[in-house]
Amino acid sequence: MSFSLEGKVALVTGGGRGIGKEIARRFVAAGADVIIASRKLENLHKTAEEFSSLSGRILPVRCHIGKADQVESAVAAAEEQFGTIDIMVNNGATNLEQGPSLSVSDAAVMKMVEINVLSAVRFLRLTVPKMIEKGGGSIINIASIAGLRPQREGLLYSFTKSGLIMMTRTWADEWGQHGIRVNAIAPGLVRTDFSSFFWKRLDENAQYPPTQPIKRLGETSDIGGIALYLASDESTWVTGQVMVIDGGATAR
Q: Is the pTM of this model over 0.85?
C-alpha cells in the first residue's frame, strides 16, 4: 500500500493540538503541503516548528472557524501559498454547556451550530468548486460516536456531530460524480485536552469506558492513520462512510 500524499495540498482545522495535530503530522510526513488553522497562533507555530523536518511543508494560519471572514482568509492564504486544496479536514469543534437538556441556552445552541456544523459548510463552499474543476478531492469530517448515540448531558455536541454525519453522507452522494470523496471519522474517547472533561472523570482504576472491549483510552495516533488512509489514493472507492474508531465502545 502507498499512502503518499506527494503533490497534494491539505487544510486541517484545529490543527495545532490533539487529533488535528496528529492528522497534520501524518499528512506532512506523507509529503503533503498542509495548512493548519485554529484560533491560537502560538500552538500552530509550535506545531509547525515541530514538524519542520518532515517531507511536506506546513503553514500556520490563525482562523476562528466560527467567523465567515476568517474562514475565507484561511482558504485564500492556503491557495496563495500552496495552490488548490485537495484534502479538507473539518476537525475544529467546541463542546459547551454539559448538563440537562432543559438548561441549554439559545446562545450555546447557536455557537455550537456555527462552529461544529456551519464552519464545515463554509469551508466546503469555498473549496469544493475548485476540487470539481481539478477533478476530485477528499473531504474528511471529524465527527464522534456521540453523533451515533446520545452523549449523556451532552445534547448539543451529540446533535451537531449527528448533523455532520448526515452532511457527510449527503455531500458524498452529491459530489461523488465529480470525483470527490466525503467521509467521516467518529472517534470514541480519545486522550486529548479537548476531551479531558470526560476521561478525567473515569475511575482511577479503569482508565477507559467500562463497556469498551479494548481496555484503554484512544490516542490521537489511533485516528491519524485512518485520516491518512481516507486522504490517500488507497481509498478511491470509499465515500459516504463513517469510520468508527472507538476501541469497540459501540460494538454492543
A: yes
